[in-house]
């Protein structure tokens, strides 16, 4: 995705929308990219992290916002 950077990955699809909503509430545009194959959900070989991407100009605020969650 040109002009966008990977902000973080989530181990499952349940956490990603919560993080996306939090970022958007903080004024950081974010999109969720889920690369899991829905035909195989629940099988260990099909599990892939869900990605959250932000525009390049929002990379630093997104990183700061995510770091604040860990603190």
Give the gist of this structure.
The chain is of the alpha+beta class. The chain contains 2 helices and 3 strands.
Explained architecture:
By secondary structure, the protein is α+β, with helices and mostly antiparallel strands. Helix content is 31%, strand content 23%. It has two helices and three strands. Strands 1-3-2 form a three-stranded antiparallel β-sheet, covered by helices on one side. It is globular, with a radius of gyration of 13 Å. 21% of the residues are buried.
- Cα end-to-end separation: 30 Å
The structural class is alpha+beta
Oligomer: single chain
Beta-strand content: 15-25%
Cα shape: globular
Main sheet: strands, sense, barrel: 3 strands, antiparallel
Low-confidence stretches: none
Q: Strand tally, please?
A: 3
Work out the radius of gyration. 13 Å
Mean pLDDT: 86
What is the tally of helical segments? 2
Question: Into which percent range does the helicity of residues fall?
Answer: 25-40%
Give the topology string: H per helix, E per strand: EHEEH
Strand order of the largest sheet: 1-3-2
Record the SSE blueprint.
Elements: E1 4-10, H1 16-25, E2 31-33, E3 50-55, H2 59-70
Antiparallel strand pairs: 1-3, 2-3
